[in-house]
Amino acid sequence: RAVPERVVTNDDLSKLMDTTDEWIRQRTGIQQRHWAVEGDSATGFSLLATQRALAKAGMEASEIDAIVYATSTSDHFAPGNGVYLQKALGIGTVPALDIRTQCSGFVYGLSIADAYIKSGMYQTVLVVGSELQSTGMDVTDRGRNTSVIFADGAGVAIVQACDEAAGSEILAWDLHSEGEHAGLLWVDTPGSIYHPRNQAEHIAEGKGFLDMDGKEVFRHATTRMPESINAVLEKGGKRAEELALLIPHQANLRISEMVQKRLGLRDDQVYNNIQRYGNTTSATIPIALDEALEQGLLKRGDLLAITAFGSGFLWGSALIRY
Ligand code: COA
Known about the structure:
Blueprint: E1 7-9, H1 10-14, H2 21-28, E2 32-34, H3 42-57, E3 66-70, H4 81-89, E4 96-99, H5 105-119, E5 124-131, H6 144-147, E6 153-160, E7 169-177, E8 185-186, H7 200-204, E9 211-212, H8 214-236, E10 245-248, H9 253-263, H10 274-277, H11 284-294, E11 303-310, E12 314-321
């Protein structure tokens, strides 16, 4: 994982807009988050996270066969960040696939890596979730329902083929979309549907900022995530009590708590760190996974579930024997 150095507290935000530390903690669980400074980039965070992952795995960048890069906040409108990371890593002309499935980005990205590997197409796939949300936040009263939630950072996983004796395996997938709700959590502009694409009025009207109907997102997220975890447990022939760890997308601590309750999981079965990071969109799961591994919460052979829900709506889960 890699996050910007700058820490932004709730009190810092209350100096920019009409909000309080108490409101943010109570409604979201967030205490602080990392926000970029000039010169930082989502590509830069993903490069640092990849270098750290390679060091942990004792691998060279040249061993990576393909990059699957999830971000909803790419450095530029086009091309996506995958190619910039490929260049920064200096790893020849390996394929770089950008996906834009927002908060579900890491789950969808991992499913692509799993399919690439199981089909024999590639052996070692770098899956990235990296975001720089803060430059797109409306830090006035108008944007207070989103700007206190979203944050910056990256997490990556190097996914590699292994023989059965190693025991690690992705056991089951569950992936969904429901586009009729796209307008409940979206960034309207710039969009090619508009003629011309970039319009000064859109910027003035705030259409370039992330827009969210928090209550509706909350309602759908707390239904879809438990449903999806139950689906992968059933496909994998496992029960919730067998899970060593569930890492839910860190959207809001209250959402995670409700998911936990609906699945009947103990506190020690669910990992949350939104208190310190906010919602880093596609990066929340790999950042949390990295912390959980550091804390020794997972050992080889343990059952891990990851689940995400977000803009699209898109959601999904994976059941993994770590
Ligand atoms: N500080 C203070 N007050 C705020 C605020 C903030 N940062 N943001 C919103 N409010 C106000 C609203 O203006 C509203 O005021 P009003 O009653 O005078 O109109 C009041 O708080 C309640 O707003 P509401 O949006 O109904 O609050 P809520 O209890 O639903 O909580 C969220 C808002 C955003 C925290 C909550 O809906 C949520 O977490 N939703 C899910 C969001 C999410 O997870 N998104 C990411 C998914 S990937």
